[in-house]
Amino acid sequence: MTGAIAIIPARGGSRRIPGKNIYPFMGRPMLEWTIDAARDSGCFDQVLVSTDDEEIADCSRKAGAEVPFLREQYADDYATVSQAVLAALLQGEQYWSTHFDVVAQLMPNCPLRKADDVRAAMRQFLSASCDFQISAFRFGWMNPWWALRKNTEGGVERLFPAAASKRSQDLTDLYCPTGAIWIASCRAFKLSASFYGPDFSIHELPWEAAVDIDDPEDLRMAQAVAIMRGSCNGGRSC
After folding, report:
1. 5-56, pLDDT tens digit by residue?
2. Cα separation of 160 and 31, whole Å?
3. Could you give the CA distance from residue 99 to residue 39 in angstroms, rounded to a whole number?
4. Closest to 101 measured CA to CA, from 41, 34, 50, 43
5. Superfamily holding 4-138+176-229
6. Domain spans in the chain, listed from the N-terminal domain onward
7. Cross-strand pairs, 133
8. Could you tell me if 102 and 185 are in contact, meaning their C-beta atoms sit under 8 angstroms apart?
9. Alpha-carbon gap, residue 139 to 122, rounded angstroms
């Protein structure tokens, strides 16, 4: 494989956890865990952080990532992550005067994903001859087949009524996407402008590695998992 780039989209302005991307997680800025996973994996020629925030940029550079430019567009609440990553990819190729073959999007709010997870995801992507791969984890005790919702009349209805009478072991596995490791062919990604391109595949992660931190409750859960694993003690791996 030649020409792989990891892009970590980390804009400022988080509301649910102010300063989330550099918020302390197990003694270090949250963003650093993702930068370490990308760099230590050995999978990438460049590890680029896309941000509109000078403080995040400074933190990223100190952790060993490249931030040769600040994000000039797609930095508001309405832009999609894929839009920001595509813009960063194009700007990065122009900056380094090269064309990358593979792009990986690593969300900075997934600090429990390890370098080993990144390597495994990349191996699957390269061997599967597909253009798009999304990381996901298998639903466990929170079985979505039995999901309920409240209707407008205040009553309750099943989302999957046909599954209500089946035993859990008779139901097929369902998977939840996580932003930990998304990979695509640069050629295909530029055409689709999304990692959910045609015929995308999934790479399964352990749920512990797949935790996305979006609010204080997620943060508490991730901290508990890190303590349970006994490996997030300020070192380079978690």
Report:
1. 999 999 998 888 999 999 999 999 999 999 999 999 999 999 999 999 999 9
2. 38
3. 20
4. 43
5. Spore Coat Polysaccharide Biosynthesis Protein SpsA; Chain A (3.90.550.10)
6. 4-138+176-229, 140-173
7. 183, 201
8. yes
9. 23
